[in-house]
Design a protein that fits this description.
Blueprint (H helix, E strand, L loop, with lengths): L2 E4 L7 E2 L1 H10 L7 E6 L2 E11 L2 E11 L7 E7 L5 H11 L4 E6 L9 H21 L7 E2 L3 E2 H6 L6 E5 L1 H5 L6 H10 L4 E6 L7 H9 L3 E3 L11 H13 L1
Parallel strand pairs: 1-3, 6-7, 6-11, 7-8, 7-9, 10-11, 10-12
Antiparallel strand pairs: 2-5, 3-4, 4-5
Keywords: Cytoplasm, Methyltransferase, rRNA processing, S-adenosyl-L-methionine, Transferase
Function: Specifically methylates the N3 position of the uracil ring of uridine 1498 (m3U1498) in 16S rRNA. Acts on the fully assembled 30S ribosomal subunit.
Family: Belongs to the RNA methyltransferase RsmE family.
Amino acid sequence: MQRYFIETAIQEARITGEDARHIMRVMRMKEGAEIIVVAQNTAYICTITAFEDEDVLVQATGQTIPSPELPVRVTVACGLPKGDKLELITQKATELGMYALLPFEAERSIVKWDVKKGAKKQERLQKIAKEAAEQSHRTHIPKIYEPIHFKQLVSQIGDFDAVFIADEEDAKADKRTRFADKLKNVYDKQAKSILIVFGPEGGIARKEADMLMQAGAQTMSLGPRILRAETAPLYALSAISYEFE
């Protein structure tokens, strides 16, 4: 069953824009067809009642679908990577349950955010997150934030119940604290929000890691192998899903 997100309450359900065109011209649905409409983080089974100009009017049947969301809100902060890696991270991390994506300008980021093209880039990433949320039957579309400076990232550490850094030095150590053990501790404390921080290609600079840890973050070991910038967030989200779900 097709899934669509709306920003209004379900009592005022009206599907507009690209989603409405998709229903009418791609899916060629008729009145009486059932679809899933997600409103205010709840998925409702709805019936199409009418087509009004370019909009689709629907009515809730009274049936809802259980939420598949992670029991903890995980925000991914990643240093700006090269190429289209940010798009890959957005798509796959959304499928794995990411709550929000917070790109930041890291010391080792080769790519610099183009302010002139930034709005369109952010809009594209948000669209990718929306489509991935629909595909994976989410009831929440991750918020894709505009990139921030590293110092701004450090200032937000206190907004989360737990903060982890993917640090290459931890991976190289002979004796590592298992990420699973740290997650179990967070789980036992019934944390509601987690921030996981990843560097760009080349990883987090030593100075950046020290600043984050001084602000209250802790390192996480993702195993003895060094992962790519686009792989590490997906590994961490999978581990969190395993522990919490």
